[in-house]
Amino acid sequence: MRLKDRVAIVTGGGRGIGQAISVGLAREGSAVVVNYSRSAKLAEEVAERIRHAGGRAVAIQADVKELGEHDRLVSAAIEHFGSLNILVNNAGIEILEPFLEARVETWDLTLAVNLKGAYFLSQKAAQAMIRFGGGKIINISSVHDVEPLRNRAIYSVSKGGMTMMTKSLALELAEHKINVNSISPGAILTDMNRKSLSEPARLERLLGKIPLRRIGEIGDIAGAAVFLASAESDYVTGSTIYVDGGLLLT
């Protein structure tokens, strides 16, 4: 088990990619704080699934955009499991809004969740990790950190900012034995896009842009997260892994 005796926080860990990462880390031996903002039932189901399989997990509510709630997550990891070694900044939002119709409220909310929340939760987690000898911070970004997404400019800006955040934190935290990396998913099948991807014409257009000719699965992202959380990636920091089936190649 590659993550035996490790302790992780996964933000937005109760659904989609976050759920797969939570389960994937637990399968490799890590205890997991499954964070949620509103979906308590889903997060508790993930935690129970982990416990039923013999792992350790607890579901903890905290809204990552509310900086005052970050202590709750870090404290939960230490109080329940004795340390903190891994943080996965997975929570994020994406709002469809053309640039010419963009609202300040959309900017403030998107940046607060996708970038500001991740930045300051990383700070709080890193302060704890230093006490426990180091750790791993993993940011879940998007291929739209380099490829703009039409009608979602603010989302793309937030993910571009996450790329520089990853590099900047990696530079400053290396001396504390904390690795910081990102995973940028491409087209991944989740409950949020399952309906739209069930349309044959739309699916075929998308597959035509992906050299591997398939839509990604949430397990594909979990596999990359396990690697970055493990000792196998100890010499990797400030990097972004693009898990996109080759989408950016086209």
| CATH homologous superfamily annotation | NAD(P)-binding Rossmann-like Domain
CATH topology: Rossmann fold
- In what range is the share of β-strand residues? 5-15%
- Number of discrete domains: 1
Shape: globular
N-to-C series of helices and strands? EHEHEHEHEHEHHE
Query: Termini distance?
Result: 37 Å
Helix content: 40-55%
Numbering strands along the chain, what is their spatial order in the largest sheet?
3-2-1-4-5-6-7
Radius of gyration: 17 Å
pLDDT < 50 runs, ≥5 residues? none
Largest sheet: 7 strands, parallel
- Give me the number of helical elements: 7
The structural class is: alpha/beta
Total strands: the figure is 7
Short description:
The chain has a single domain, classed as NAD(P)-binding Rossmann-like Domain (Rossmann fold, 3-Layer(aba) Sandwich). It is built from seven helices and seven strands.
